[in-house]
Specification:
CATH architecture: Roll
Shape: globular
CATH superfamily: Electron Transport, Fmn-binding Protein, Chain A
Radius of gyration: 16 Å
Strand content: 25-35%
Number of domains: 1
CATH topology: Pnp Oxidase, Chain A
Helix content: 25-40%
CATH class: Mainly Beta
Largest sheet: 8 strands, antiparallel
Number of helices: 6
Oligomer: single chain
Order of helices and strands: EHEEEEHEHHEEEHEH
């Protein structure tokens, strides 16, 4: 098992965004008293807002993770390593409402440093985020081309702005990137 160390957002952002665009990232959320749930995300934004490092995620209200995020108030983003493409795909097609994806994917939930939601040990980069703000997308503010392509059923995402409290990774993460 690789040891993990702290990094800055700037050191890991480019690698995280590349994996986000290629295979996706794993979002973990665990409200108090629940088991952890993992969901694949293919959309997200890293940056700075209100003078704080942030990770913005988009989750539809129909998703089980939406319900968990509303109760938890935090989440972790986990960057998968090379060889995890199949589990990333699986976590994006099966709901945690009826399945234990942590168990089925042989993931190890490891306590985070500052949020309740755990990280996935088998991943190589981790972001611990506390939800600062959330807002629903407004249909009339979106261009028709976006509405037609992504929202034909009017199932608009809620955006969650998470303040990144910790960023850490395996010391040899560069060798393990997909």
């Amino acid at each position: 098992m690789s040891s993990k160390r702290e990094y800055t957002l700037e050191e890991l952002a480019v690698h995280t965004l590349r994996v986000l665009r290629s295979i996706g990232l794993l979002l973990v959320c665990q409200p108090e008293g629940d088991k952890p749930n993992v969901m694949t995300i293919g959309w997200g934004m890293l940056g700075v807002l209100w003078g704080r490092p942030i990770f913005v995620i988009a989750v539809r209200p129909s998703r089980y993770t939406f319900e968990l995020l509303e109760r938890a108030g935090d989440f972790t983003i986990n960057v998968p390593s090379r060889g995890m493409e199949n589990v990333v795909s699986y976590c994006g097609t099966v709901s945690g409402r009826n399945r234990d994806k942590f168990k089925e994917c042989n993931f190890t939930a490891v306590p985070s440093k500052s949020v309740h939601s755990p990280i996935i040990q088998e991943c190589i980069i981790h972001y611990e985020c506390k939800i600062l703000y959330k807002t629903d997308l407004v249909a009339k503010a979106l261009p028709k081309v976006i509405l037609d392509e992504w929202y034909p059923q009017n199932d608009y995402h809620r955006l969650y702005v998470g303040e990144i409290l910790h960023v850490y990774a395996d010391e040899d993460y560069l060798e393990k990137l997909p």
